[in-house]
Amino acid sequence: MFDKLTDEAINIFMLAQEEALSMRHSTVGSEHILLALLEEQDTIVRSILLGCGLSPEVVRAQVENVFPQLAKNEIQALPLNHSATRILELSWDVVESLGAKVVCPEHLLLALLQSSNSGAIELLNSFGVNRQLLRREVIAAIEGTAGFVGSDV
């Protein structure tokens, strides 16, 4: 399932699981993937998301307010929920459409932006992020032509 992912992309899923566990959630969702994309240091995706005015602390607080916690979570590994699984599947389509061979964090963000009715999309909408502009910024970054104009995203 993860054989076509770069180490960075695999780390995104590991960070997403850590986020879900720390919040005592029963599954890893798209909202946890969004948080992991914000947490992964020194990535283009993090820079773009920070440029949109998002921060790990603010997004985490919103996730904790919106998504219910379990009373106690003693699970060590959580399954991906439908939206997170869909992001993984869509990321392969993104890679193929861009002519790449492996999934990078940028592809995960593009897949996340294509998903619908997910916690991450709700979060992005609640923060007023223009998903089409964000998508264009990520594609420009992949192509090496990004200006990282965060205020335009």
Report on this structure.
With about 150 residues, this protein is an all-alpha fold. It is built from eight helices and no strands. The N and C termini lie far apart (about 30 Å). The C terminus is likely disordered.
Task: Offer a quick outline of the entry.
This protein is mainly alpha-helical.
Task: Spell out the key features of this protein.
mainly alpha; 153 residues; single chain
Counting helices, strands and paired strands, the structural category is mainly alpha
Count every beta strand, where a strand is a DSSP E run of 2 or more residues. Answer: 0
Mean pLDDT equals 89
Low-confidence stretches: 147-153
Count of alpha/pi helices: 8
Specify the helix fraction band: 55-70%
Report Rg.
Answer: 15 Å
Assembly type:
single chain
Please give the structural blueprint:
Elements lengths: L6 H16 L7 H10 L4 H8 L4 H11 L15 H17 L6 H10 L4 H8 L4 H13 L10
Helix pairs in contact: 1-2, 2-4, 2-7, 3-8, 5-6, 6-8
